[in-house]
Amino acid sequence: MRLGFLGTGNMASALARGIGEPALCFDPVEERAEALARELGGEAVADPRTLAERADVVVLGHKPYQLEAAARELSGAKAIVSILGGVDVSALRAAYPDRPVVRLMPNTPVGVGKGVVAVAIEEGAQPSAEETRVRAEVIALVERCSTVLEVPDSRMAAATAIFGVLPAYVAVWAEATVDAAVRHGFTPDEAGRVVAAGIEGSAALLRDQGHDTLAVRRAVTSPGGSTARGLRALDQGGLRETVQDAFDAVMDVA
Ligand SMILES: NC(=O)c1ccc[n+]([C@@H]2O[C@H](COP(=O)([O-])OP(=O)(O)OC[C@H]3O[C@@H](n4cnc5c(N)ncnc54)[C@H](OP(=O)(O)O)[C@@H]3O)[C@@H](O)[C@H]2O)c1
Question: What CATH number is given to the structural domain containing 226?
């Protein structure tokens, strides 16, 4: 299956990198498409029409509000994969009628082979045999770089709030911890390395413990100890409540 990326920004590039196939690339900024094509061993094309003609599947990597404008240029596309936030399957079908459409919600760690990708299930729909085939091939490709979760289309916004935005949240957590560590005499580089390793190790431990957050937490928290004092400070700062608010804020538009 020959993929064509329409828009080679942050998310599309990460996905292309994670899949690791030579692909066709188009971006209004020519150098951006050329750089990604070079990295993939693919080819930058001059316009969306050529992308539509030559790709088996076009991956929409532009901004969500550009859906209709892009569709006018891609009328010849054989099949569509969308990573557009907040654009549901019915809107995709309206823009790209009579051809396979697959809606994905990836996160940026796909670029380093450790992503999560939600694949939308359209409630009550009877997909064509062609769409079933394209969907299976697309899932096999994204499984190279991610944990794949098939979810009803109506739950894609919640999926975005769980893991689509998570790299940004983890980055903010890491940044705040590095700032605190620098205040206590570590260099930013030392602190950055151990914070990233600590986050990676904690995630691996959670997985190992069957995602039992309480067990992981209790194993670090001795009675009357320093972790208990730190956790109390986080609760007093409103961490849990803030996470709930952040989830709802993402869902408002995702
Ligand atoms: N970033 C994430 O973590 C993430 C996660 C999941 C889904 N998404 C979705 O991924 C999409 C892209 O987001 P992003 O963060 O990667 O944004 P981005 O870095 O700004 O990438 C968008 C790219 O598309 C190009 N573009 C604009 N109009 C185009 C057109 N008509 N045809 C082809 N290319 C066009 C842009 O060029 P210009 O800069 O010249 O406009 C830019 O290179 C969005 O729909 C977003 O909802 C993002």
Answer: 1.10.3730.10
